[in-house]
Amino acid sequence: MIFFALNIAIIFAGGIGSRCEYSALPKQFIEIDGEPIIVKTVRIFQGHSQIDKIYVSVVRSHIDLMRELAERYQLTKIAGIVEGGETSQDSTFNALNLAKQENPEDSIVLIHDGVRPLLDPEVITKNIECVEEKGNAVTCTPCVETILIAANENKTEKITQRNRSFSARAPQSFRLKDIYDAHIKIRSMPDRYTGIVDSCTLLHKLGIQTNIVIGNNNNIKITTKEDLKLLK
To answer: Counting Cβ atoms within 10 Å, is residue 201 exposed (0-12), middle (13-18) or buried (19+)?
Structure first.
């Protein structure tokens, strides 16, 4: 039985990539330079000395493929591969649920998109240190463009202060018990994950403050075929 806290990566890749329009494969399995994007992403955590375990959620039809990739690329820190859910938050929860069954509740979990393969390993270190010190961490980058809030498609309702604006990215990191309990609370509400796009917005809905960790600017999420071209 494990008695000591671990540092765990939760990689959610349960979607089918409908916005990518580039391949019949879910975008996380598209190969770039002969290697699937999901492998590139997992490899960052695999190679980090402070990461002990990795849990991956993928679309049901590609679980066997993910298992085969884990073996082929020697992704030995993968402790579990689970079925993704209807939303990214469902996919995250499925992986968290397994992690909670197998690890101490004070373990640190770093929740990361399976299609963010350009993460700087130093950001992982900073996330772990921030959770240890402050309880949670949200990787962000400062906004360099003016951010407009629209009342509708054509009219500006509000302009934010650029020097106070950040773009939330990943990983987003927490104590295992804290983020698991937050999901349980949200899942008990009538609207569940409606309007919640990541762990940061999930905690915000519950009135829980999060802490910013500055990440690398090129840590983009591969969403469209244009993003794939940039990755290449």
So the answer is: middle
Residue 112, C-beta contacts closer than 8 angstroms, at least 6 positions apart = 9, 10, 11, 12, 41, 45, 119, 170, 171, 172
> The domain spanning residue 11 has which CATH number?
3.90.550.10
- Structural domain range at position 58: 7-231
With contact defined as beta carbons under 8 Å apart, do 103 and 8 qualify? yes
Strands (E), 71-135: 78-83, 108-113
Residue 24 included in any domain: yes
Q: What is the sign, positive or negative, of the torsion defined by CA atoms of 16, 114, 80, 208? A: negative
3-state secondary structure of 167: strand
Distance of CA 28 to the CA centre of its chain: 13
Q: Is the pTM of this model over 0.85?
A: yes
Inter-residue contact 198 to 217 (CB < 8 Å): no
Q: What is the pLDDT of residues 26-79, one digit of tens each?
A: 789 999 888 999 999 999 999 999 999 999 999 999 999 999 999 999 999 999
Distance in angstroms (rounded) separating the CA atoms of residues 199 and 113: 11
Count CB atoms within 10 A of the CB of residue 32. Answer: 14
List all residues 6 or more positions away from 114 whose beta carbon is below 8 Å from its beta carbon: 11, 12, 13, 28, 37, 38, 41, 42, 56, 58
